[in-house]
Amino acid sequence: MKTPEWIIILTWRFMGFSVIGMVSTVVSMLMFYVGVEMLHYKAVGVYLGSYILTIIGSYFANSIWVFHAKVSAVECVKFFGIYASGMFLGAALLRLLEFIFPMISPFLLGIGAMPITVGWNFFFVNYIMERFEHRKR
After folding, report:
1. pLDDT tens per residue, range 109-125
2. In 3-state terms, what secondary structure has residue 14?
3. Please, which residues have CB within 8 angstroms of residue 8's CB and are 6 or more apart in sequence?
4. What is d(CA 80, CA 61) in angstroms, rounded to the nearest whole number?
């Protein structure tokens, strides 16, 4: 039995989305380290700055390399909104998990919440990017 084309496309998109997400996370952590530990800036400002910059970079990378979609300011704002909603979803889920499993490390619970937020982000990013696919800049 042949795998439907839409499953193959979705799988490749998810893999590309995941790789860009991992690279963005590493870049964000490096920016945070340099800003806080080496340049001695305030942690909250560096965190917000690195978060915003890496989400914008992730938008461009995903648009160009994963979804082959047109880059636009409106779609970038939507992309950022999706990530913000995913962050709030993850925080709420983490709070719930801490309540249900108080004996488990919050760090481990946070890792447990990540697949939900990654799935959330991918589902909605795929939805908005799919509409602009193949419309190159």
Report:
1. 888 888 999 999 999 99
2. helix
3. none
4. 13
Residue with the two structure tokens 């939900």: 116
Q: At what angle do helices 73-100 and 106-130 cross, to 10 degrees?
A: 150
* Tokens (6 digits) for 74: 């409106």
Average pLDDT, the chain: 89
Quick one: residue 111, left, alpha or beta (phi over 0 = left, psi -120 to 50 = alpha)? alpha
CA pair distance 93, 91, nearest whole angstrom? 5
Measured from the Cβ of residue 6, the count of other Cβ atoms closer than 10 Å reads 8
Q: Is pLDDT above 80 for 108?
A: yes
User: Exposure of 102 by Cβ count < 10 A (0-12 exposed, 13-18 middle, 19+ buried)?
Assistant: exposed
C-alpha span between 122 and 10 (Å, rounded): 10
Bridge partners, 69 (sequence order): 133
Q: Which residues, 6 or more positions from 97, have their beta carbon under 8 angstroms from its beta carbon?
A: 104, 109, 112, 113
CA separation for the pair 93, 98 (Å, rounded): 9
The Cα–Cα gap between 2 and 10 comes to 15
Determine the pLDDT at residue 132.
61
